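cron nightly-structures :: item 1 of 1
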Amino acid sequence: MVKAYLKIDTELGKERDVRKTLRKIKGVKSADLITGRHDILALVEGTSYEKIAAKVLEKIRKVKGIKRTVTDLVFDEQTPEENPDEQILGEMPEIAK
């Protein structure tokens, strides 16, 4: 399984409609409204990078209200099993005083 993060720009006022539509597309694991340069950050999974690219081009970019997408492919993922100490919910890193 491979993953990609999509940074999505929407038409003004269409953010929630786009997010709702994205969440119905197979392979879209999450779609969150964010602050900053882009409107939505979506996580997409597929069996290959080629299939993710096809999904972006054939389905996601055609969603009404999307103006632009930027796709960042995940090439090295750290799982909770690899570093369980960093995965404890609520644990905050110490800040140097």
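cron nightly-structures :: done
The chain has a mean pLDDT of 89.
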